[in-house]
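Changelog note: in this version the structure field was regenerated for every chain. One regenerated record is shown below for reference.
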Amino acid sequence: MTAPRAALTGASGFLGGHVLAGLRARGVLVRALARRDVALAAEIVRGALEDEAALARLMAGVDLVVHVAGLVKARGRAAFFAVNAEGAARVARVARDVAPRARFVLISSLAARVPALSDYAASKRAGEDEVRALYGDEALILRPPAVYGPPDRETLALFKAARLPVVPLTGRGRVAMIYGADAGAAVAAAALSGVRGCFALADERPEGYEMAEILRAAARAQGREPWALLPVPGPVLRGLGAVSGALGAVRGRAVMFTAQKARELAHPDWGVSAAELLARGVYEPRTSLAEGLAMSVAWYRDQGWLERDAL
């Protein structure tokens, strides 16, 4: 039998890199879109989401299209929508024209469940809506929760915060988690399974973890135990996010932590219900939170991003 062929966007990013590894582990031949020459275990098509000719080259003759590329931080609502909504619509439209029999998979976000929370959440929901408008019930939409692990830099802040004697507690709700390599393997398994619809991913505890539990576990993965957890009131958290966002604007760059991100952090329930969850028959989680955090710490230390000695 001929190996299936997949077109992949976002392969040079954190989650996209894990999706690429997951697809290759299942024998899929991957063609990846990249803005520049990068060292990827895939055939490279140079181009961007705005370039329909590049997208057509990417998708010619494939059996599967997996759209991972997106923004998790941006300088404003227009930037989020240009990539997460309009970009998804463009990829889906070209896929329908160039590879009409190919299976289409969109990687969204659990944040799309509550689009009113932030421009990011709204843009991810809009991207889902664009794909549904073109594919109806035929597409597969996957909503990862908080994804962590090597080589992500964005979640490094959590590990650094957990090293403090008094750790700031930025929320009291529940948060579903998944280790990066597991997320990539789950996407690959679901993409090749034939399942359709909208599903969420999660680790062995889809109902999620309280933030205090996550921070304590991140501290223990570094051989520490926090002396105290200090709850940060919502208004203070939003204020700090506003300051961070304003500083990013002054410097002309997008930052992750903004007032809108503070609202996402304060949301009481980012757990995954049984009705939302990707079926265990399609993918079984492999990595517990403790294991994933320990592997993350080991990798960050090898990179020199986390100190080995006490502060």
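Spot check on this record: The two ends are 57 Å apart (CA to CA). The mean pLDDT is 93.
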